[in-house]
Amino acid sequence: xxxxxxxxxxxxxxxxxxxxxxxxxxxxxxxxxxxxxxxxxxxxxxxxxxxxxxxxxxxxxxxxxxxxxxxxxxxxxxxxxxxxxxxxxxxxxxxxxxxxxxxxxxxxxxxxxxxxxxxxxxxxxxxxxxxxxxxxxxxxxxxxxxxxxxxxxxxxxxxxxxxxxxxxxxxxxxxxxxxxxxxxxxxxxxxxxxxxxxxxxxxxxxxxxxxxxxxxxxxxxxxxxxxxxxxxxx
Length: 234
What we know:
Elements lengths: L3 E4 L4 H12 L5 E4 L19 E3 L5 E3 L1 H11 L10 H25 L3 H12 L6 H25 L5 H16 L12 H11 L6 H7 L1 H14 L7
Parallel strand pairs: 1-2
Antiparallel strand pairs: 1-3, 3-4
């Protein structure tokens, strides 16, 4: 059977999975989950989040990194997870780094109510919502996420969200050290994870920061070529 991905199109964790599937040229079905009632994943009683991946044998796999590892084993051609000890250590380092990036990203996307409304206007374009549902999600979601972003700033000790993102893009650029990809000549798990996270804000204000760092932007362009994906999810 064809694999199936239950997702929110604008979710960075879901885009991590989309990136590895695209890189491996896997034909799969996408089910956009309604963010309010989540009726599409009613079958998943113990796990009520996205992404949820149903593999080619009907097995359910949860959590983005676990799903990526499962896909790498399910479709072993063009393997992306490292096996050698030294490379694996570096990979784990950058995968952990990506978790810090994604935890802090909401502070940039939802920095204030106006930015939050713009973000949710972008998000609601990706789902199949009625006019009323779109407005409800857009304004209620924007208000809630602005408050959440403030809590994250405190929790993660992020004083300046824009400076945080600029620092992260520079850290990644320095980590490349002249390499095409963090894994070397071809994309690895960390490359695909970070690219997926970046795709989630591909047309928002945060993406402008990516363009400012030439090395980071050049890497993004290489990732677009390797996966066949664009930064836009709409």
